[in-house]
Amino acid sequence: MDYVAGVDLGGTKILTALADTGGNILARIKVATKAADGPAAVIGRLVDSVRQVAAGVPLAAVGVGSPGPLDHTTGLVYHSPNLGWRNVPLGEMLRERLGVPVFVDNDANLAALGECVRGAGQNESHLVYVTVSTGIGGGLILDGRIYHGSAGGAGEIGHMILDRDGPLCSCGRRGCLEALASGTAIAREARELVARGGGSGLRRLEPGAITAQTVAETARQGDAAAAAILRAAAVNLGRGLAGVITLLNPRVVVVGGGVMASGPAFLATAREEAARHAYGPAWERVSLVPARLGGDSGVVGAVALAFGTQG
Amino acid sequence: MDYVAGVDLGGTKILTALADTGGNILARIKVATKAADGPAAVIGRLVDSVRQVAAGVPLAAVGVGSPGPLDHTTGLVYHSPNLGWRNVPLGEMLRERLGVPVFVDNDANLAALGECVRGAGQNESHLVYVTVSTGIGGGLILDGRIYHGSAGGAGEIGHMILDRDGPLCSCGRRGCLEALASGTAIAREARELVARGGGSGLRRLEPGAITAQTVAETARQGDAAAAAILRAAAVNLGRGLAGVITLLNPRVVVVGGGVMASGPAFLATAREEAARHAYGPAWERVSLVPARLGGDSGVVGAVALAFGTQG
């Protein structure tokens, strides 16, 4: 029996799991990333987590999902704003420390792989994964494999421009999907509404407490303005997804991320809008579904990567 | 020495070529499709062309590019408005008549493959091909292979919606790239301008003679209104390509089709606009270039398909 470890390295936490040949997760550990301590300390914590979760069991390989962009062939992280890293040879350092093969890929790609092997897109060879959270990230499974593009940058659905006169995005351009439909965008719209003197329900929140989550809570309490902000974000998500569906003709689009916790209306609205905007023949073949693994999609994908499910 | 035939089956003409193992084209024949005669007659002409071009040389295989959508695994053409076909078992009929392996794929996919193996994207594994002609079609070469999507429909860049309030598209929706940047769109804009009493240079044309080609000629004669119409189409093309580049991170985008004959300003404008709209890291890696094989990209791709270049 072979065992592997899968690691989901995030900006705030490191989630590490031990799995058997069947991909079943036998144990898991979550520790704080404390990115401010620098790459060496973070990688030390990651190594400790792997050793602890394996607890004496010999590991055949380790798969790691990291914020990118990165070189998945070597595991070199070029630049991660979330971790504050630049050119960190994560794969090489882990191989040296752990003495086993280590495979590294982008976190969104591994979440896509996780949903593909054990989640909402099980056994589908053509899957688009989108996470709607602080930002909007994406991963593509094409012909059964992670699609990286020519330089590891494929899947950046969050930076497809929907409205060139739209709000400023974190990338410096205007009207990206991320600037129109992410948690950050939802909170920004709510703050701007309150600043304009609108949004009776939202005005009851402390200005610093206006987040996508509190906007969603306010909407659930029946506030129309909060609901309209969420709805506008979902409409934009649907339009963005429609373009991807038209271009790639996937079998399933899996949507995850914190904003999905706002309730089923979010995805339902996105689906309605995507139905209107996607090319008919492509729309007929696709299912637009919520992620099934929640916070585990990345670590499940990391386990699959370690097992070489990824060709 | 093995020989193959490649066939580009179009709505108006059938282009057939004989090639050697090196992919060199040794002979070619062009005949009229005469689609109105029906599938049996058209397929008869295609078979005759293959026999004639091979002229006694034994063929190892035949590759055929056909307007789609179609099932590339069997060569069943589901529906081709250009040919007036519905559910024509093109691959099966050709295999029976020719007695050799026959591979069929979508014409835009084979044009992409042609430009990839011997054209503007030689030896590139991540290529997007777009043809801007009466309509706008596309083909994707991802990880060195034609990407078909889950049901053969990948690459429909022409039906990505850029402006939901835009002009009506042939597909029945509004604001598709095809409705904003194709030859048909250019001619429509020119006709509408003339109908509104504008376009001094364009008004000199007979109403029935307003085509993308005559608009381009009028622009070359210094007419500002005609140039502005071409420019607007190119700007929209650039925006559409930017989304594809952001999502797929290709190494090269090859643009072909009749509208490219309007002059180098068309692609230059599209490039400027794409540079503004594409995600920075993806834009840094991509070249946006004109097709190099002209009307031959499809038949060259068909030859490559016959040789199994397509995995």
Explain briefly what this protein structure is.
The structure is a homodimer of 311-residue chains. Chain A has eleven helices and 13 strands. Chain A has 311 residues and is α/β, with parallel strands linked by helices.
Question: Layout of SSEs?
Answer:
Two copies of one chain form a homodimer.
Chain A: E1 3-9, E2 13-20, E3 25-32, H1 39-54, E4 59-66, E5 70-71, E6 76-80, E7 85-88, H2 90-98, E8 102-106, H3 107-118, E9 127-132, E10 136-142, E11 145-146, H4 177-181, H5 183-195, H6 200-203, H7 212-220, H8 224-248, E12 252-256, H9 264-277, H10 280-284, E13 287-290, H11 297-306
Parallel strand pairs in A: 1-4, 4-8, 9-12, 12-13
Antiparallel strand pairs in A: 1-2, 2-3, 5-6, 6-7, 9-10, 10-11
Helix pairs in contact in A: 3-11, 5-8, 7-8, 8-9
Could you explain how this protein is built, in words?
2 copies of one chain form a homodimer. Chain A is of the alpha/beta class and 311 residues long. The first copy, chain A, folds into 2 domains: 3-114 and 296-306, ATPase, nucleotide binding domain (Nucleotidyltransferase, domain 5, 2-Layer Sandwich), CATH 3.30.420; 123-292, ATPase, nucleotide binding domain (Nucleotidyltransferase, domain 5, 2-Layer Sandwich), CATH 3.30.420.40. The first copy, chain A, is 39% helix and 23% strand. Chain A contains 11 helices and 13 strands. Chain A has helices at 39-54, 90-98, 107-118, 177-181, 183-195, 200-203, 212-220, 224-248, 264-277, 280-284, 297-306; strands at 3-9, 13-20, 25-32, 59-66, 70-71, 76-80, 85-88, 102-106, 127-132, 136-142, 145-146, 252-256, 287-290. In chain A, strands 3-2-1-4-8 form a 5-stranded mixed sheet, with helices on both faces. In chain A, strand 5 and strand 6 (76-80) form a beta hairpin. In chain A, helix 8 (224-248) crosses helix 9 (264-277). Chain A is globular. The relative contact order of chain A is 0.16. The model of chain A has no long low-confidence stretch (mean pLDDT 95). The interface between A and B is large, with 46 and 46 residues.
